[in-house]
Amino acid sequence: MSLSFFERLNLKVAKSNVGKYFRLEGSGVRRERIGSKFTIEIRAGLTTFVTMAYIISVNAMIVTDSGGTCVCDSTPDDPICLTNPSYASCLADLKLDLITATAAIACLSTLLMGLFANLPIGLAPGMGLNAYFTYTVVGFHGSKGIKYETALAAVFIEGILFVLLSMAGIRQWLARLIPQSIKVASGAGIGLYLCFIGMQRSAGIGLVGGDDATLVSLQGCILDAAGKCEPGSHMRSPTTWMGIFGLVVIAVCLQFRVRGAMLFGILLVSVLSWFRGTSITYFPRTENGDAMFEYFRKVVSFHPIKSTLGKMDFTFEGSEIIVAMITFLYVDIMDTTGTLYSMAKFGGYMARNGDFEGSSAAFLCDAASISVGAFFGLPPVTAYIESGAGISEGGKTGLTSLMTALLFFISLFFSPIFASFPPWATGPALIVVGSMMAKSVRAINWDYIGDAVPAFLTIALMPLTYSISYGLIAGIGTYAAINGVVWVLKLVSGGRIVPDDRDLREPWNTEEFTLENVLPGWVQRLICRARGLPYVDPFDKMEEEDRVAREQEALKMMKGQGFSDAKIEVDGQDSFDGPKHET
């Protein structure tokens, strides 16, 4: 049977040096990524980009609220320059600078992740981190007393510290210390977090929103001039129903295994929303809508960074900036570690030692991107949970990231188009990806309270606190508290006071928690060289151990069926002498 064009293309690329470097299926290299094909990686990269594209405009909008390098000539009547026309003009130019900077750092950081870590993970300035940078550290229009330039310097130094921690393997140690139940729960928690983002108005379909009495409530309403729901307009918003339509389209396409289902749903809703004069248009006939449409009509436009490049001020005064730097550091550690390990679990390339191949390179790429982003004038860069959309489309290698990076590079010149995907178009994809990630709850040990309660708090607090790091902190803290008390009681009672169901607890696999499995590869190579021993990659070692285990299991099964002294083929190889059938 003749191969189709795409099958021939996949086979040719897999056999090329590119395919071997990225370990595509059929490349013939060790530890090739099963199921990875060139065309699938390209489609996955497209999907990841489209689900992340909103960050180009959203991040620029949020950071612009800090005032950036614009100088506010405050007056008693207008202390934060809300009505100052010259300040507003400066902010408009600042926003264009930040659009370019966001697309540029997303391109560069994602490219590094794909080339050096070979992972399908997209990076960009972090949602949540950018809000903390703007509204807590610098303040709206610089109202908090810490200058924008000083905050950038703090982010730059935090990135350098992050690089050092990654090179020393401390991040890997921290990740390994997280119990397995918390790791599994973090995937489900991030799924709910994604779903929550996708249901809000700022980056989703607007189905839920704030409420003075209950914090959140069902909305989907029509907003008035002040941004509040009009009375009696709940679930009457055309854009909310358009988002629900997109959600149904994506779900039905996935049900019938349509390739590119998420990408198709996002593009369909986006194109329908670009027509003016409709109730679902992304460009209403208002001053802001007209400005957005005029920018959209340019199609091709490149705006060089003028006011934010290299604007760092290392003059630290007061303790507030030190606190901010420490906060950036620990939030980055928890957020990025949780995201990377959850994506590895979701993508199916988590090893049985609790690590994933390319983790050290991934941490270094993420850490270096933070300092480069600060040089561009941006808050900390982090791995994006929206990468799950590309992984669910079949992305398994760094080629997915390279495609995403290429599209971010193109967006530098087509930013009017790529910055115009409405949130109700990308929101449905986030909701669907969230549902896919939530299925990991099946692997949680619900039978033992010491595992179940910490896992549940991890899942619940990620969306409820709008923070991956707070969820992890709550889960790890309660795990240590509950199981620590149980351990102390057992110790002081001489083993007489123990829970009846203690045998149901999830064992902590200390056998895999060794220096060999935790230290970065370059440190392991130095140790081996100092001892005069050859360096063995731990993932190669695990693969060989798994192969031997499969051989032994096959031999045991064959002997049980009355075979002896023949060849048994395991994984396509004549691995060992096995049985001939006895007659």
Automatic annotation (TrEMBL):
A biological process term (GO) from this entry: guanine transport
Regions that span the bilayer: 98-117, 151-170, 182-199, 240-256, 263-283, 321-341, 405-433, 468-489
Transmembrane recorded as keyword: yes
Annotated keywords: Membrane, Transmembrane, Transmembrane helix, Transport
Membrane topology: Multi-pass membrane protein
GO cellular component: a single term: plasma membrane
InterPro entries given in the database record: Azg-like, NCS2
Signal peptide positions (record): none
Chief location category: membrane
Pfam families, per database record: Xan_ur_permease (PF00860)
Protein's organism: Podila minutissima
Entry superkingdom: Eukaryota
Molecular function terms, GO-annotated: purine nucleobase transmembrane transporter activity
Compartments in which it is found: Endomembrane system
Assigned protein family: Belongs to the nucleobase:cation symporter-2 (NCS2) (TC 2.A.40) family. Azg-like subfamily.
Protein name, per record: Xanthine/uracil permease
